[in-house]
Give the backbone structure.
Amino acid sequence: MSYQEKKNIVSLMGTLLVFVCYCLYVFERYPEATLDSTDTFRFWASVILILIPVSIVAKIIITIIFNIIYRISTNEKEPSFADELDKIIELKATRNSHYVFIIGFLLAMGSLVMNMPPYMMFIILIFSGLLSEVIGVITQIYLYRIGV
């Protein structure tokens, strides 16, 4: 298994772990926030705005730990260059990720049109962000495995 495949698998597991832990924390701590109130928008906006930096910091820490463990276990450095194949794979994964997020965004807006509670829009946005990240990483793993 190549370095890129291992890195993407660790990234996927880290993303899912951080998301699940954060969701458990939010839904356990604020169960009453799902009620339809004037603070609904403020609560869900803060959930999303806090999730973004938490996930960025967690990804940085996970990447650093992965690189340290990889270097100790294999005595190899992280590849310092990206060839054309790496760039093509990254572009295709980004494309797929954006498509998934756009579909999720449209579903979130559609939930408001169908008179669903406002918190459903935010939940759909959060999960479409997670799903787009997962699809991007899975696309990279798949393309590294079979080629472009």
Summary: Residues 29 and 140 are 35 Å apart (CA to CA).
